[in-house]
Design goal:
transcription cis-regulatory region binding; alpha/beta; Rossmann fold; five-stranded parallel sheet; Transcriptional regulator, LacI family; four-stranded parallel sheet
């Protein structure tokens, strides 16, 4: 026998009041309800294990209780840490967190945002960097404007080419700091493994490496630029490519830790010792970076803390408490064993 769904009328019958009164208690209405009646309603809700229809409530209040988060790779520890931090605040409140994994695909990104628009999301977080694509910029601009007209709170991590609140993640500064550290330890023959070509985060990190080299009167050599994709496997492939030029390189700056870890693994597999024969550096400080062999010298970007700050900020905005802002991300150098001083 299928058990029928408990409705607001069942609660009203048990509490000996009208469905309207039950609705007022559930929604914390300003309409006065006596303390005795409110207690009866709450007792009836508990006894019947009644759950209000949040979709119907959302339609009535023009709120969906949906927070959309757009990421590029849900398996990447970078995004996992950020979302974990966000949920530190959001999970205790009645919001549904919808995570869209887009694999840096323009159509998937646009589909995700259009779905959130259609479902009238209360907030959307662009947790990944913007895609460097003209169609993406043009079509995303239109959807973003429509979301803004619906009252959706919009937040971007790193700069995005449309008018939303963006958080600076210090990508360029982080790449500059890690390259500075390599140079300070005597390295001048420095290779760089890039991130995805269509990602603005990749561009910023490459610019940080170039700026550091220029500040030390060194030239960025195009032949020492190797393509990567922010993944462990991409780091392995880059290692195989740079083996042909290993006599021209003393240190490699990888665009992120996942790439650096793949690079170290493959170099060790090929019999190239890190850091005795070549030094490797990363950016992000993923949890696994300190457990690599050797442990990875990197720049810490406190992604988990950023996630908690985003969660706190969103809740404040959704509750119209506008005095809370997001704390800036401060990169920090973490010196481990993957870099050799050659001065």
């Amino acid at each position: 026998m299928v058990r029928k769904e408990i409705t607001i009328k069942d609660v009203a019958r048990l509490a000996e009041c009208s469905p309207t009164t039950v609705s007022r208690v559930i929604n914390n209405s300003e309409h006065p309800v006596s303390k005795d009646t409110a207690e009866k309603v709450e007792a009836a809700i508990k006894r019947l294990n009644f759950s209000p229809n949040r979709i119907a409530q959302g339609l009535k209040n023009d709120k969906s209780n949906i927070i959309g988060v757009i990421v590029h790779d849900i398996c990447d520890s970078y995004f996992a840490q950020m979302i974990k931090g966000m949920e530190e605040f959001i999970s205790e409140h009645e919001y549904i967190v919808n995570i869209y994994n887009t694999s840096r695909d323009v159509d998937k990104e646009l589909h995700a945002v259009n779905m959130l628009k259609a479902n009238r999301a209360d907030a959307v977080v662009f947790a990944a960097g913007a895609l460097m694509d003209k169609r993406y910029e043009r079509e995303m601009y239109n959807v973003v404007e429509q979301l803004k007209s619906q009252g959706t709170i919009l937040l971007g991590v790193t700069p995005h080419p449309f008018a939303i609140k963006n958080i600076s993640l210090a990508n360029q500064k982080a790449a500059e700091m890690i390259t500075d550290y390599a140079i300070e330890n005597g390295h001048q023959k420095i290779a760089f493994i890039s991130g995805p070509q269509n990602l603005y985060t990749s561009y910023l990190r490459k610019q940080g490496v170039i700026k550091s080299l220029e500040n030390h009167s060194l030239q960025f050599k195009q032949e020492l630029l190797f393509e990567g994709d922010f993944t462990f496997e991409g780091g392995r492939k880059a290692a195989l490519s740079l083996l042909n030029k290993i006599d021209q390189i003393t240190a490699v700056v990888a665009a992120n830790d996942a790439t650096a870890l793949g690079l170290i693994w493959e170099l060790n597999n090929q019999g190239v010792k890190v850091p005795a024969e070549i030094s490797v550096l990363g950016i992000d400080d993923l949890p696994e970076a300190k457990y690599s062999y050797p442990p990875l010298t990197t720049i810490s970007l406190p992604i988990y803390n950023l996630g908690t700050n985003i969660g706190e900020y969103l809740l404040a905005q959704l509750n119209e408490e506008y005095d809370i802002n997001i704390k800036p991300v401060e990169p920090k150098l973490l010196t481990r064993d993957s870099l050799k001083n050659i001065e």
